[in-house]
């Protein structure tokens, strides 16, 4: 039991992170694309496409953070001081973005400022999340189980590149979401944006995939030693095939397939990160077993999580079912 509990919790937190990236990723992507709208009516249409869902999507961020604190307190105690600044920036950006959802609709003379808050908050939050991810991948300095680095260790070219990559990825999710949910000029422009962003995402994935094994020996050993290389090569191959399919579906005017393919690209990238780093929760020093809470705490919280998770999933599924459908210009939920 003590051996498997940390793995179960790692899977739960990993699932929460995936759901957050996919669900909040596309509505952050809407904000990233906000400056490219041609009119306020188009911006209204874009924002209304995610209005019923955006706050529920952030549930998974809370679950991931709280799960890390409860199940892996030693990892939380290392990661938070190491990433304190980008975490604070991310949270402030999400606050600005959330407030703009409520105030922009009723604003008259100040609407341009709320547009800026929504777009800026989305871009900064996405970038900060990428920087945090990059900082974790490159590793955290740990001595005697405690953070022993500086407050700006995360500020490296690699982490900044990952930050830009996440912004591009979220924008791709947002563009393909608009293809699904909107009609008219917004949907047509989103299809063009999606093609451009696909190139940006593939370039970012290629650079990061080459940079990590060159810069980090532990990742090179995971991917390019035998027999691992024989089992892992299908992952980059599948990424290339899926990218070609996404481009083809955009050309063919498909609606749901590009969005699903964009999600697939994120999932493949996420699987690659897991393969590169597991079982380290704080690379390259602390594993899931070294950072886990006592079994009694894990079991107690697991009971509550297992009971509540179906309720949360059911509620989210119900909301998407109720508010699903195309949004035309001028339509909304306010």
Describe the structure.
- Helix 4 packs across helix 5, helix 8 packs antiparallel against helix 9 (185-215) and helix 9 packs across helix 10.
- The mean pLDDT is 88.
- The protein has a single domain, classed as Formate dehydrogenase/DMSO reductase fold (Up-down Bundle), CATH 1.20.1630.
- It has helices spanning 5-33, 40-48, 54-57, 59-71, 73-82, 84-104, 111-138, 157-181, 185-215, 217-224, 228-232, 234-251, 256-277, 295-322; strands spanning 142-143, 146-147, 280-282, 286-287.
- The chain is globular and about 60 Å long.
- Helices cover 75% and strands 3% of the residues.
- Strand 3 and strand 4 form a beta hairpin.
- The chain has 334 residues and is mainly α.
- Strands 1-2 form a two-stranded antiparallel sheet. Strands 3-4 form a two-stranded antiparallel sheet.
- It contains 14 helices and four strands.
Helix content: over 70%
CATH class: Mainly Alpha
Q: How many structural units, i.e. domains? A: 1
- End-to-end Cα distance: 50 Å
**Rg (CA only):** 20 Å
Descriptive labels:
single chain, 334 residues, mainly alpha, Formate dehydrogenase/DMSO reductase fold, two-stranded antiparallel ribbon, 14 helices, 4 strands, globular
Question: Summary?
Answer:
75% of the residues lie in helices and 3% in strands.
Write the SSE topology.
Layout: H1 5-33, H2 40-48, H3 54-57, H4 59-71, H5 73-82, H6 84-104, H7 111-138, E1 142-143, E2 146-147, H8 157-181, H9 185-215, H10 217-224, H11 228-232, H12 234-251, H13 256-277, E3 280-282, E4 286-287, H14 295-322
Antiparallel strand pairs: 1-2, 3-4
């Amino acid at each position: 039991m003590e051996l498997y509990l940390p793995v179960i919790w790692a899977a739960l937190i990993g699932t929460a992170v995936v759901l957050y990236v996919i669900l909040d990723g596309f509505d952050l992507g809407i904000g990233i694309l906000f400056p490219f709208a041609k009119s306020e009516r188009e911006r209204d249409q874009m924002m209304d496409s995610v209005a019923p869902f955006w706050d529920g999507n952030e549930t998974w961020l809370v679950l991931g953070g709280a799960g890390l604190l409860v199940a892996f307190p030693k990892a939380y105690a290392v990661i938070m001081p190491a990433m304190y600044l980008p975490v604070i920036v991310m949270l402030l950006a999400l606050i600005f973005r959330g407030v703009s959802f409520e105030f922009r609709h009723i604003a008259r003379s100040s609407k341009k400022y709320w547009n800026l808050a929504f777009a800026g908050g989305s871009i900064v939050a996405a970038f900060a999340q990428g920087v945090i991810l990059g900082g974790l991948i490159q590793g955290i300095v740990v001595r005697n189980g405690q953070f022993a680095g500086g407050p700006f260790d995360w500020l490296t070219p690699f982490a900044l590149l990952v930050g830009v990559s996440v912004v591009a990825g979220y924008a791709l999710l947002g563009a393909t979401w608009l293809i699904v949910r909107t009609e008219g000029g917004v949907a047509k422009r989103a299809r063009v944006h999606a093609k451009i962003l696909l190139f940006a995402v593939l370039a970012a994935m290629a650079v990061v995939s080459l940079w990590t094994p060159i810069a980090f020996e532990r990742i090179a050993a995971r991917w390019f030693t035998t027999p691992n290389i024989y089992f892992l090569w299908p992952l980059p191959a599948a990424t290339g095939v899926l990218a070609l399919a996404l481009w083809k579906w955009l050309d063919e005017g498909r609606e749901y397939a590009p969005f699903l393919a964009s999600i697939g690209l994120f999932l493949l990238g996420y699987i690659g990160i897991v393969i590169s780093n597991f079982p380290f929760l704080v690379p390259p020093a602390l594993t899931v077993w070294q950072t886990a809470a006592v079994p009694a705490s894990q079991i107690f919280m697991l009971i509550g999580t297992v009971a509540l998770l179906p309720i949360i999933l059911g509620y989210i599924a119900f909301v998407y079912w109720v508010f699903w459908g195309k949004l035309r210009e001028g339509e909304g939920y306010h």
